Amino acid sequence: MLLRSPGLLLLLLSGLRAATQEKEVRAMVGSTVELKCIYPEENSFDLNDLYVYWQISGSNTVVTYYLPKNSSAGHENNHYKNRAHLSLDSMKQGDFSLSLQNVTPQDAQKFNCLVFRESLQLGKILEMEVSLHVAANYSLPVISTPSSESRDPELTFTCRSTNGYPRPNVYWINETDNSPLDKALQNDTVSLNSQGLYDVVSILRIPWTPNMNVGCCVENVLLHQNLTGRSQTERSSGTEGRITETPDSLQKEDNVVIFITLALLLVSVIVAVVIYMGKSKCPHRNYTGAQAATVVCELTDHT
User: Fold this and answer.
1) What does the alpha-carbon distance between residue 182 and residue 92 come to, in Å, rounded to a whole number?
2) Which residues pair with residue 180 across a beta bridge?
3) Given pLDDT bands bounded at 50, 70 and 90, which one contains residue 6?
4) CA diameter of the chain
5) Radius of gyration for the chain, computed over Cα atoms and rounded to the nearest angstrom
6) What is the pTM of this model?
7) Count of helix runs (H) and strand runs (E) in the chain
8) Separation of alpha carbons 3 and 75, rounded Å
9) C-alpha separations of 77 from 27, 37, 62, 73, 246 in Å
10) What is the pLDDT of residue 210?
11) How far apart are CA 189 and CA 293, in angstroms?
């Protein structure tokens, strides 16, 4: 009798657990990953003789499956619908691998592949378990530094990094000698955002130290990745009471200088004009000898 329902197949499979081959696969969020399930010997298969089944290990969650005579449509879990695919051509050659598109953090599961042949009274010919580890890169940590004008007895640094997976490790270092700072000095908040990825905020409080340089390290263990943000702060001194000229005051001062310069230039022009007009009233004569020494040009204004 042919099995048309994945539910009936699940009941059948419950008593057929045997030694399972296990593999591990890593994938980045948003990528396409292939979960391998390949028959170990070279062989060709008739699709009408095959029952291929992918599920989440230890549960009844259906990822995808193949039953002969096109009777396998419509039973996948909604989370995997239109994302999980089997290749009919590959299955004919004994390759029952699962292609999973647009990987999400929720796909970090153990997947079970089972293959049966109807001609062997639904005898199991292959079983494989694949552990999928999902990762996403964290953003470069950004550190908010204390105000240089602060007079608090302790310094507070805030480090932020977002959109990573899995959950990170966070630690702080003293950049002066690259020594780790005491974990008791920091307070970490790690939360899942709407994308199912982790955001982390770490607050470091340390006694005030002049010119303190610190680094915030966000570690993604799965990717063997360690991102470090750096910052520094310094306490200002001798600046109290200092008056700083604003651009407006500087502009006003420039305007005064320009006005004075123009006024002096105008006075010079007026004086030059008066002298020129006065000279123009002197008659032009040729004098020689003693006469030239006694010529007086009188500027008079007869009104």
Assistant:
1) 59
2) 173
3) very low
4) 152
5) 44
6) 0.67
7) 4, 16
8) 14
9) 21, 20, 5, 11, 66
10) 80
11) 104
Looking at the DSSP bridge assignments, the partners of residue 167 are none
State how far the Cα of 270 lies from the Cα of 106, in Å rounded to an integer.
Answer: 89
> Any residues with CB less than 8 A from the CB of 1 and at least 6 apart, and which?
none
Query: End-to-end CA distance of the chain, in Å?
Result: 140
Tokens of 150: 């602060």
Tokens 């915030």, located at residue? 216
On the CB side of 283, CA atoms within 13 Å amount to: 5
Give the Cα separation of 265 and 109 in Å (integer).
87
pLDDT in tens, 22-32: 789 999 999 99
- What type of residue sits at position 142? V
Nearest to 117 by CA among 62, 52, 64: 52
CA distance 171 to 168: 10
Confidence of residue 83 (pLDDT cuts 50, 70, 90): very high
